[in-house]
Amino acid sequence: MDLLVQLLANGLVNGSHYALLALGFGLIFGTTRVVHFAYGPIYAVSAYGAWVLAAHFGAPLWVAMLGSIVTGAVLGVLSYIVVYRPFERRGSPPLVVLIASLGLFIVIENAIGVVFGTDTKVVPNPPSGILLLGPLVVTGSQMLQVGAFVVVSIALGLYLTRARMGKAVLAMTDNAEMARVIGIDTARVSIIAFAIGSAIAAVPAALILFKDGATAHMGFLAVFMAFVAVVVGGVGSLRGAVVGGLVLGVVESTGMIRISTEWQSMVAFVVLFIVLLFRPRGLFGGR
Amino acid sequence: MSVSLKVRGLAAGYGTKRVVEGIDFDVAAGDIVLLLGHNGAGKTTFARALFGLLEPEAGQVWLGDKEITGRSPARNVADGFAFVPQGHGVFRSLTVADNLELGGFVESDRSLLAERRERVYSLFPILAERSTQLAGTMSGGQQQMLAIGIALMHAPSFMLLDEPSIGLAPNLVDKVMQSVVEINRTMGTTILIIEQNVKASLPIARRAAVFKTGQKIYDGDPAPLGDHVRLMEYF
Amino acid sequence: MDYLLHILVMVSLYIVLASSFNLLIGYAGLFALSHAAFFGVGAYATAILAGTYGLGFPIPLIVGVLVTAVLGVVIALPALRIGGDYLVIVTLALQVIVTTVLINWTSLTGGTDGIRGIPRLEVFGVVLDSPGKFLPVAAVTAAICFAIAWRLGASPFGRALKAMRENEAAVQAVGKNVVAMKLTVFAIASGLAAVAGWLYAHYFTFVSADAFTVELTIYMLAMVIIGGTGNLLGSVVGALVLVALPELLKFVDMPPDVADKARNMLYGLLLIVMLRLRPQGLLPESASASSLQAPPERPPVATRAEGAALEGKGLARRFGGIVAVRDFDISIPPGRITGLIGPNGAGKTTAFNLLTGFLQPNEGEVTYRGRSLRGLKPHQIVRTGVARSFQDLKLFTNMTVLENVLVALPNQSGDNLWNVYFRPWKVRAEERENIGRAMAILEFVGLGDRAGDLASDLSYAEEKLLVVARLLATGAEALLFDEPLSGLAPNALAKVMPVFRRLAESGRTLCIIEHNLDVIRELCSSVVFLDEGRKLAEGTPEQLMHDPELSERYFK
């Protein structure tokens, strides 16, 4: 029983990592309808950005985090303006944009390998400290992860419901044509969505340095889990994306009881099938 | 506040298809003009080309004395041109109040919004009752009223409505028509309304035009169109 | 020299992979990102059977192809119901699962170490242990696989696949079984990929799961896209370009692992650039039939057809709480044109969908020639003789006018792959006849000289004519047209209306939905007025249009 509680807690921690990834991806997808596969490698570059600051320049965590966020946001916006927007302008079908995104994925992923090599980058001196909550053991870096998730979610929620451009984002996600009809500049909102979405992914990117470390290939799994979480939660629903991410984390973690470690990652994908089979629109999906 | 609309030689379509050709059209400031025509006659294509959702292939459009041909919708909205598209478009996942607030998105003076919202509520009391309800859960008629309310939030001087009565019960259709008259009367907004429901829309029009297969075939006094048997010739 | 031969072996391998991938993505429009998984399963099957169990040719090849084809069909099942983004993520997930299984089923697959020491192939006593010796086998295998793919692509089945890609509803409406088509193309494409896996295993004598990743799928995707979707020669070009071009980087001085990545970056960039500049790829889509080889004889078109009445009795259909159609009785007789009119939202298109099997009624029954159509799928109903067109046309836009009509012709032996491969003479002969039939139909509607043009190049009036031609081609005697003439200018109408009259005079059963009342007056001998889902009146056009109450309803 204690084991189950611990696994559940671990699952929620990992789930909050996935939830943040899903939130960023879902924001971009819901607003611009672009399946941004390059989201994964950009997340990886953000992690490397944080690593350079922390390991090379010995910067404290918050500076490294900031560097990660700026890196992510800039690359995200660039990828929209340089790669996706030209296709949008000429009315290319969505599948063409998706394939372009796959091309960008390959370019960025390999660029990382060229610049940084293929070894795993970790950061020395991760936050330490252990919290004991009854039978639960929570490490310092786990607390940081959950804390980051809570802060980002609240901040995003406030932005989307209070700020003028935040409401424009919600409007465009709900009904892009009506957004244009009421005078919203949808190109500008797309840029904002890419900036914020990539910035959100940069947060868990920096934190991963303390856990598994950064590798050139981590981008694929990240965008894949984000995509699965968004589909499970329901396309267009940010709440769904968060729930999808948390569900994936918990299922993956508690699946460990029955299934040996290696098959763990498959569990997440099985969740995808089951959900799509019974609720093809996802848990919260409406479209 | 009202403004006129002038169209000369407008042509528009999709891909290789020209849907409307050589359209000249005038809407005098403060007028209510009705545009009729069968399905596929090009009325919606015309409307979208005016508002900027579709790039015209030829011709020119003036809002007042400003040429607006092919301008983006955002600029047209900022200049007082409101569009209520077909299908009662609203933001389904947001509340009525949020929807209305979004209607005032381009308004830089936010203090004006409260008063305008009150005006919308007095025009459509049902929206006031349901201000915290999600727009997607309302009936079609209520959504249509909300769609009109959204357009009113930036105090337009010109309003273009595309088939607002479609799919509505007769009493709601009357309500929509009445509200259009009211808006024109109290706010002075120039109205161009596209309709298929001749019976309900003809009485409110001061002028009427008919499109048939992409061309304008009638433009003038609405009265003769009241003879339905004769109207069949235009469709 | 050895290195050049090695490159050629790789090109041969990728020709098999790219052309089979093209069948799925380019021809069938099924965006399944699991091709590296098929490749890997084929390679592992060979590795296990030839390596671990020491079985000789041809068992590893045959079993590998069969196992992979079964996997292909399994992956096809979600594709039957979903498309677009959902298909992408589901097939991507399956790819990851396959990779995970390959890595983790250690007892069978050797886990992360993979399987080594796969025996080399032996031909006439020569062990194929160098690129030069392996190349002939690789090249011959590639040629055979390419020929298989080519034959499929150029056959009527291939044409039906493309039509399915263009518009799935329309291809059902001309009598094709999309479920069978999807399962078949997945099985063939995955089977061919497995052959590439067999080659790979015997060439490298070592397989490991990290070779069969999503990056490899994207690499193959790039070959298909750059070479040209829907053109198999394009896939050869794509394979050549993407294997050979990055070799030019050899001239730039770089450490080897960086060179690898630089190569990958190059193909990623090439993919993006190609999509921007020429999204259809280097080689254009190949047409499956040419009007140039049309035989001189044209079989008569508006032959005497024995139409029968299409009857709907007591039809009702609800959507949630809304009743779209109720108590709907209609009898559409042969030899005349019946019009169906009514205001917007009256339920006309729903009625059509009920009469032609695109929707099942909640109550009531549709019969044709005394047989009930209940429970039949749209493509089955077409075969019983009832066909419909669509208000939004649903033409196969990236195919030629001739192909649009060819695809609709019934009873083509070439729709069955068994005939395509094992009785090609029969398929070829039938194809010639069918081209003649199709040309006759096109000439009947006045599109004869546009046969070789793409449907997307047609004017609006010509598109409407093509809709009629395609429907006529189905061979159905009961033809239901949804707004066939809407939006046509008067001179175009004058050209098109006689076609309808001739069809009716030939004994066929015709029904049209129209808003243009001039057309109704001209063509229809009887008109049914529909409002609020019910038949309100039936009579001649004059009777209905001079009825003041009905006119009022029409304009609501």
Main features:
heterotrimer, A: 287 residues, 11 helices, 2 strands, globular, C: 556 residues, alpha/beta, six-stranded mixed beta sheet, four-stranded antiparallel beta sheet, 22 helices, elongated
Describe this structure in words.
The complex is a heterotrimer of chains A (287), B (235) and C (556). Chain A is mainly alpha-helical and 287 residues long. Chain A has helices at 2-32, 39-56, 61-89, 94-116, 140-162, 164-174, 176-181, 186-208, 218-233, 238-254, 264-278; strands at 130-133, 136-139. Helix content of chain A is 74%, strand content 3%. Chain A has a two-stranded antiparallel sheet. Chain B has a 6-stranded mixed β-sheet with strand order 6-7-8-3-9-10, sandwiched between helices. A 4-stranded antiparallel β-sheet of chain B has the order 2-1-4-5, covered by helices on one side. The longest helix of chain B is centred in the last third of the chain and has 18 residues, at 170-187. Chain B starts with a strand and ends with a helix. The mean pLDDT of chain B is 90. Chain C is an alpha/beta fold and 556 residues long. Helix content of chain C is 55%, strand content 12%. Chain C has 22 helices and 14 strands. Chain C starts with a helix and ends with a helix. The mean pLDDT of chain C is 88. The chains are: A mainly alpha (287), B alpha/beta (235), C alpha/beta (556).
